[in-house]
Predict the structure.
Amino acid sequence: MTSRSPGRVHDAHRHIGVLPAHPFYGGPPVNPDTTARATIDELLADLDREGVERALVLPNYGVPDPGTSFALNDLVIEAAQRDDRILAGLWTSPRPQDAAATAKALALAAEPGVAVLKLSFLLGGRAGDETCRPQLDAIFAAARAHGLVVHVHTSPGAASDVDEIGLLVDRYADDVPLHLVHLGGGMSGHIKLIGHRFFDWIAAGKRVYTDTSWAIGFAPRWLAAEIERRGIGADRVLFASDQPWGDFAGEHARLAAATGDGELAELAFSRNFEALHGLG
């Protein structure tokens, strides 16, 4: 395969908002997300520079205060309603202590431009924790009622591991599209998903999707090869930059190299995004 740049690009996962400095891992307060954007104008300038036609934009997160991310829900809705290149993803939380804030976020699910509900276990909670079940049920019920996609962060180990996230697939993905962000997020996650689980779920009728942001170099190539070998999954992979935690140029180049310049590239970089979000 060649790595000619796809003609059209939609970004299925990126963030807006500047987070406060935080002393991660016992070090001094830092802002590692150096390309974080505080304003809609800055975000639009990035899309113009990168040549991105459409983007799914979510609140930035990462510091252990979910209130910071909940507060950005109004900004992503404003961005989507200002420019039709943008779809909004709302920050939600499975944690019981965030139940009121999540209910407030879900009340915005019918707002024009909202396409996604985002949840992550990085700040706490587990898919198998019964105290999280009411919030998870409410998030997926809102997605079902409003025709939205649920995004869930994946990374190796702990509560974001594919072993845990698979509980959400089993419980909800028969009728709610579930986007497994980051393709498992690392070596073990990639192998679990590409080795069989992603394709097993598709074959079982689960509405699962993924993207290759944060993927180790071998994973997008292997994913493309398995899609070709198995004959399924081409319609379930999307391009995502995860800016500012990812790097647009690097993420784009890696997936372009893996998918070549044929139909799979067109699907991953634009058509799957349009189909998933009903942009036809």
Notes: The first strand starts at residue 10 and ends at 16. The two ends are 28 Å apart (CA to CA).
